[in-house]
Every structure is written in C-alpha cells, then in structure tokens.
C-alpha cells in the first residue's frame, strides 16, 4: 500500500471527525502517502494533520453561488491534481454527488463508497467499484474508522487520534483581566434555528462561570450571530463578545481555552479533537449518532429534549473538575 486518497469534502465537523482515519491508516501502513480531497472552506483543518501528504482542495461550495471563472479554474486544477498519481485505493467517506465525482476522476484501482442505503445521495453509486460493508452499530465517527479499516484490511485500535498540530495564538489583555487568565468559549451560533440553545440559558451559564473565576468569550461569524452574542453579553455582565475571527484564529483560541461549551457545530468538534474540556449541547440531532464522548468531553441533550443550565453545569463538572461554579441558584 503506497498511496491512499480520502474524500471528505464538508462540513467542518464531519471533516474534523474524519481525521482519525488518517492516523489509523498510517499506523496500519507505515510510510504510506495519504492525500485528502476537501472543499476549500474546510481545507485548513486537514492541513493541521501532519499525516496528510497532499491537501487537494477547490471552492466547490462557493462555485455553486459565484459561478466565477477563477473558482472554475481552481476546480479544474483539482481535477488535474487528482490525476497526478495512481492511488491504491480511494475512500469516499462522504457519499454524495460531489464526492463521487472527485472519487471517479482520481486515478485508482479501487474506489470505495457506501452501500446504496447508506449514501447521502443515491446517484453517487456510479463512482464506485467497491463498497464498504454495512454500517456498524456505533456513532457516525467510529463508523468511518471501521469502514476504512474493512476496506484496506486492518482493524482500528484504541481511541480516536485526531493528530492535530497547530501553534497557540497570543491574545491581548481584556479590561480587568491579565493576559493568560483562564477563559471558556461559548459556541452558541449555528446555521439551524432548531439547534440553538436559548440565549437566556447561555447568559445564566455565563454568570455561573464568571462567578467561578473564568472569563466567558462569545465568538461569532455572521451578523445575526453577532446580535445573539451581544444579547447574551447584555444578560451576563462580564461576558465578552470576541472580534470576528478566521478558522485558524478560532482554533488558536480553542487551544488556549480552559473549557468549551457549544451546540452541535464544527468548532465544538474541534475542541473535542484537541482534548479540551468540552460539553456539546444537542437539541435537534442525535447525540448517539453525532455526539462526542471522551474523558474530557461529553454530549448532553437529545432530539425533543432541551437540557437546562444545571444539566450543562453537571456536564462541566465531569469534564472540567477544576472548575467550581457558585452554589447559588441559577437565575432563569
């Protein structure tokens, strides 16, 4: 086994949760070259893995909106890069049209994809001459490790190893705090309304964490997310709305965080991958299928159940025992 191509294009959380497959492959086949095809929007995450030899990216998601000539040229360059080497195997761990096309363009003896019932888009089946086995009874993330191992002839061992390597970014002092004072990151924002935890809950949690001696930082990306962050900060004096940051900058902030709390969104998966004390809140998706679980991270909530502030504080006590929130009653 000399060269493998992983195809996982989006989204951020899914790409992060695919990183352990790289570690598994390189353990099973020392010296193997692992390339990865990914959408440009998620490429920086893949570049954090030293186990990936080549990151092959193009703005496929953006091209659907812009139809620009520059983006088209980048996509054609991706196609050329996919043809540069012959792969022993292509693993399409995405299972939709765009990933199938990428898999089909690559020069490979074997192109693995999911069985028809497991595909995200049934039409993707045209690209494969091999299929992964039936999905095992486990969460989606471990299922990818199992599928890749079955295809290539090894069994994944141990806990997921994301292999992320990055440098920590510096920070400026905040009023009333010295540089380096411990902080918690609240990833409150998500593109889907049914995944959102109520602002009043975030504010109550922030007040408890501030009382326990932690700064509370509120990231945002879109304008609507900024409004929500400002609303939470108004209800929790002392919580700080961060400036808008890039993915790399937010990754550095996660690396320096004492704890991370957030809804089911990509950067909370990043915190879990970086072994930070992490609580992920589920409201509309299945924590059994998409959740996180490790000695320093856990998932709470479920479809149809909105966890309360006390539930999150209890979760934090499990993954971050160093934190001692106040014992006062929590305001609604």
TrEMBL record:
<dbReference type="GO" id="GO:0005886">
    <property type="term" value="C:plasma membrane"/>
</dbReference>
<keyword id="KW-0997">Cell inner membrane</keyword>
<dbReference type="GO" id="GO:0005829">
    <property type="term" value="C:cytosol"/>
</dbReference>
<protein>
    <recommendedName>
        <fullName>Lipopolysaccharide heptosyltransferase 1</fullName>
        <ecNumber>2.4.99.23</ecNumber>
    </recommendedName>
</protein>
<dbReference type="GO" id="GO:0009244">
    <property type="term" value="P:lipopolysaccharide core region biosynthetic process"/>
</dbReference>
<comment type="similarity">
    <text>Belongs to the glycosyltransferase 9 family.</text>
</comment>
<keyword id="KW-0472">Membrane</keyword>
<dbReference type="InterPro" id="IPR002201">
    <property type="entry name" value="Glyco_trans_9"/>
</dbReference>
<dbReference type="InterPro" id="IPR051199">
    <property type="entry name" value="LPS_LOS_Heptosyltrfase"/>
</dbReference>
<keyword id="KW-1003">Cell membrane</keyword>
<dbReference type="InterPro" id="IPR011908">
    <property type="entry name" value="LipoPS_heptosylTferase-I"/>
</dbReference>
<dbReference type="Pfam" id="PF01075">
    <property type="entry name" value="Glyco_transf_9"/>
</dbReference>
<comment type="pathway">
    <text>Bacterial outer membrane biogenesis; LPS core biosynthesis.</text>
</comment>
<keyword id="KW-0448">Lipopolysaccharide biosynthesis</keyword>
<keyword id="KW-0808">Transferase</keyword>
<keyword id="KW-0328">Glycosyltransferase</keyword>
<dbReference type="GO" id="GO:0008713">
    <property type="term" value="F:ADP-heptose-lipopolysaccharide heptosyltransferase activity"/>
</dbReference>
